[in-house]
Each structure stands twice: as structure tokens, then as C-alpha cells.
Automatic annotation (TrEMBL):
Keywords: 4Fe-4S, ATP-binding, Bacteriochlorophyll biosynthesis, Chlorophyll biosynthesis, Iron, Iron-sulfur, Metal-binding, Nucleotide-binding, Oxidoreductase, Photosynthesis. Its EC number is 1.3.7.7. Pathway: Porphyrin-containing compound metabolism; bacteriochlorophyll biosynthesis (light-independent). This is Light-independent protochlorophyllide reductase subunit N. It comes from Rhabdonatronobacter sediminivivens. Its cofactor is [4Fe-4S] cluster. The gene is bchN. [4Fe-4S] cluster binds at C24, C49, C110. It catalyses: chlorophyllide a + oxidized 2[4Fe-4S]-[ferredoxin] + 2 ADP + 2 phosphate = protochlorophyllide a + reduced 2[4Fe-4S]-[ferredoxin] + 2 ATP + 2 H2O. GO terms for molecular function: 4 iron, 4 sulfur cluster binding; ATP binding; metal ion binding; oxidoreductase activity, acting on iron-sulfur proteins as donors; oxidoreductase activity, acting on the CH-CH group of donors, iron-sulfur protein as acceptor. Binds 1 [4Fe-4S] cluster per heterodimer. The cluster is bound at the heterodimer interface by residues from both subunits. GO terms for biological process: light-independent bacteriochlorophyll biosynthetic process; photosynthesis, dark reaction. InterPro entries: LIPOR_BchN/ChlN (IPR050293), Nase/OxRdtase_comp1 (IPR000510), Protochl_reductN (IPR005970). Protochlorophyllide reductase is composed of three subunits; BchL, BchN and BchB. Forms a heterotetramer of two BchB and two BchN subunits.
């Protein structure tokens, strides 16, 4: 596919700072605890935080969970108890009972921030106490001024200063992908002759990568701005590329990484021919439903810009507005270059104003948070929950068809409900 003569990189951005409708960063614990198999996430928060985690993850727990909440009671909030002493006791109890834990994350919340509980000091103290078996780190998952994918970003950024130093020339893949997807990426890179490759986060503490001046890193998620900056500060160099969503995105991502290792784009075309053809075929099936449909992204998952690029270029959709919580120039620039001018690019949210724009535009599909989806559906507008996009494997060639199908499904459902199903069902 050709690059538009004028992409959206220099499109004036509509910046809004008003009321927002998003989940908080604690949500990331749900996928991070699955990825890091010897980590424990201890939220220092309130019963509300505990309920959020339980309801988001409750039904998915089959083994002893690797996350929990140290509940701040009223006396803690009123400053009548020494929260640090209680935290030390809780952590000691937890680690004595769970020798499998090698990394412990103290996760800050709105309540811990309100009482100014210094979790970095606590992490330092507890790390010294429980080293070398357990490393204790901290980050904030607080809902104030954040969105739910920022939890992963804050977690990975907190890990960077603790990584060992190396002079080795290595590629670092950054982002918590499901294991099966990460294995596919590693296999593609190995077939291109690229290596050694390390992952952040690693599945186990002992496999943690080291970084240094010869490390180059490729993000696999577009919401890792703080991690990108932390890695750069520690001497690693980013590879700028579109993200591996869709056949085109995956190919461009691989070509950017390959170029860094002196491998020609033709070699990438050759090695990826079979999975790329499978991906294109699967995307084409879903694109029958998506072609010509108008889509509106509300700012939520921070995946909006790469997904808009995928849906407009590979599925024939038209983007009306692409809202993102944060716009990070170096990370989103290569994506914006590929999106033809036309859609409004907005950063941040003023939810009422944005809902007015949705109602005026009446798009065929609105990607938004759970709280906005039901009211919009009641007004006759089809929606897609943004949070599904981080719980479903969607990266690289083998998942490209599933990614397109995620957007086709609500349109097919709506068409079926209004009696227009037969020709759309054929596209399934
Ligand atoms: S961190 Fe804040 S927004 Fe998140 S569940 Fe706790 S109180 Fe609610």
C-alpha cells in the first residue's frame, strides 16, 4: 500500500482537558500478572480498588492469584496508624507464605496518593530486606489523570532502572504480549536472522533483559511512552516504526527492525510471504463488512491511532475522529504519516463535547469505554469496547484477521437485528 502524500503528522490536534471516562491503571495488573509468572502485584488501596480488581479478574482465577490489595482503613487515611509498619508486616507475611514470588510490585492508588504514602521509599526498604530472592519495585496505577493502559507503562518504566547493564548488541521487544503472540514474533525475527532478542517484561525474573548503549528496542504497544523515555535515558535506542497490527503494520514493523540489523526489505517479503498471505486473506473476509463504514474513536486504550491506520488502510473504513488520551510524537508519528488527512485528531477528552460530536456525526461504529457504550447503543449507535482490544491477542500476522473481525462483529450484529443480515453473514 502506498503512503499518502500528506499524512496526519502535521494535522492540528484538537486538545481537550475535561471530564474523562476511563478505567484506571490498576486494570493492567490483569494481563501483567499473567505475563510475569513469578511476580506479585500488591495494590495499596481501598476496598474500591480491591473490588475493581476482583470484578475485572475474578472469574479468570484458577490458581492462587498473584495480585492482592493491602486495604487502607479509615485510621490509615486519618494518619492515625503507621501505614509503613503495616505494609512491612503484610509483605513479610505474603513472602513467607509464597516463596515462588521473585518480583513484588507495590502499586499505588488514589487513596495511597491522597495520604502521600511514599511507596518508593517502602520499595527500597523492602527490597533491601528481602534481597536477593525478591526485588521490590513500585509504580502508580492511580486513576487520577490516567487511563487503563498507563498501568503497564508505569510498571515497565519502573523496571528499567533496575535492569542490569550490558554492552551487548541486542534487540529488546517492549510490551506485555500474550506468550503465544510473543513466540510468533520471536519466530519471525529468528527466521530473519535477527538476534539475540530479549523481552521486557520477561516471563520470569531470572530472564530479565540487560540494557546499554548497544541495545535497540522496538515497542509492540503504542501506550509505552514513559517506558520509551526511561529506556532512552538509560542509553537504549528506539526503532521508530508503525505497530504490528494488521498485515501491513506487521510487515512495516519487521522491515524497520530488519533495517536496523542490515537486512533488506526484500528478504522480509520473502520470509513473511506465507503468514502475510494468510493475514491478508483473513482481513479481506472481515473487510467485506467494514468497507465504507465510518468509525469514531473515543480516547481510551491508547491503541486508537494504530488501529485507525489499520482499519482505514487495510479494511477500507473511514475515520471520522481519532481520539487518543495522549499523543506521543516519536511513537505515533510513523502511524500518523500513513493515515490520509481527513479525520479529526484529538488528544484528551471532554466527554460531553465529544459525545455531541459523536451524535452529530452518527458514525457506523464508535470505539469507546464500557461506561459510554450502553448509552450510545440505546441511541442506535453501534459500539466496540476499547478494553477488549487489550484482552484479546491482536498483534502480528496470525491475529490480524481476528483484529478485523473484532470490529466487524458489532456491525454484523446490528445489521442482523435490523433484518439486513443475509449478505453480511456471508462475509463471516
Ligand atoms: S486506584 Fe483510584 S480509580 Fe482506581 S480503583 Fe482505586 S480508587 Fe478507583
Amino acid at each position: 500500500m502506498t503512503t499518502p502524500t500528506t499524512g496526519c503528522r502535521n494535522t492540528p490536534v484538537l486538545r481537550e482537558r475535561g471530564q474523562r471516562e476511563v478505567f484506571c491503571g490498576l486494570t493492567g495488573i490483569i494481563w501483567l500478572h499473567r505475563k510475569m509468572q513469578d511476580a506479585f502485584f500488591l495494590v495499596v488501596g481501598s476496598r474500591t480498588c480491591a473490588h475493581l480488581l476482583q470484578s475485572a479478574a475474578g472469574v479468570m482465577i484458577f490458581a492462587e492469584p498473584r495480585f492482592g490489595t493491602a486495604i487502607l482503613e479509615e485510621k490509615d487515611l486519618a494518619g492515625m496508624a503507621d501505614a509503613h509498619a503495616e505494609l512491612d508486616r503484610e509483605v513479610a507475611r505474603l513472602l513467607a507464605r509464597r516463596p515462588d514470588i521473585r518480583q513484588l510490585f507495590l502499586v499505588g492508588s488514589c487513596p495511597s496518593e491522597v495520604i502521600k504514602l511514599d511507596l518508593s521509599k517502602a520499595a527500597e526498604r523492602l527490597s533491601a530486606e528481602h534481597a536477593p530472592h525478591v526485588r521490590v519495585l513500585n509504580y502508580s496505577g492511580s486513576g487520577i489523570e490516567t487511563t487503563f493502559t498507563e498501568g503497564e507503562d508505569a510498571c515497565l518504566a519502573a523496571m528499567v532502572p533496575a535492569l542490569a547493564a550490558t554492552e551487548a548488541r541486542e534487540l529488546l521487544l517492549v510490551g506485555a504480549l500474550p506468550d503465544v503472540v510473543e513466540d510468533q514474533a520471536l519466530d519471525l525475527l529468528a527466521r530473519l536472522g535477527i538476534g539475540p532478542v530479549r523481552c521486557l517484561p520477561a516471563r520470569r525474573a531470572d530472564d530479565a533483559p540487560a540494557i546499554g548503549p548497544n541495545t535497540v528496542f522496538a515497542l509492540t504497544q503504542p501506550f509505552l511512552g514513559a517506558t520509551h523515555d526511561a529506556l532512552t535515558r538509560h542509553g537504549a535506542r528506539p526503532i521508530e516504526a508503525p505497530f504490528p497490527f494488521g498485515a501491513e503494520g506487521t510487515t512495516l514493523w519487521l522491515k524497520a527492525v530488519a533495517a536496523e540489523f542490515g537486512i533488506a526489505p526484500e528478504r522480509v517479503d520473502e520470509v513473511t510471504a506465507a503468514p502475510r498471505a494468510r493475514a491478508e486473506k483473513a482481513i479481506a473476509a472481515a473487510a467485506q463488512t467494514l468497507r465504507g463504514k465510518r468509525i469514531f474513536f473515543m480516547p481510551d486504550s491508547q491503541l486508537e491511532i494504530p488501529l485507525a491506520r489499520f482499519l482505514t488502510r487495510e479494511c477500507g473504513m473511514e475515520a471520522v475522529e481519532i481520539g487518543t488520551p495522549w499523543l506521543h510524537g516519536p511513537i505515533h508519528g510513523p502511524e500518523l504519516d500513513l493515515i490520509a488527512q481527513g479525520p479529526v485528531i484529538s488528544e484528551g477528552q471532554d466527554v460531553d463535547l465529544q459525545l455531541d460530536r459523536v451524535r452529530a456525526a452518527r458514525p457506523d461504529l464508535t470505539v469507546c469505554g464500557l461506561g459510554l457504550a450502553n448509552p450510545l447503543e440505546a441511541e442506535g449507535l453501534a459500539t466496540k469496547w476499547a478494553i477488549e482490544l487489550v484482552f484479546t491477542p491482536v498483534h502480528f500476522y496470525e491475529q490480524a484477521g481476528d483484529l478485523a473481525a473484532l470490529f466487524a462483529r458489532p456491525l454484523r450484529r446490528r445489521a442482523a437485528l435490523s433484518g439486513l443480515a443475509p449478505h453480511l453473514e456471508a462475509a463471516e
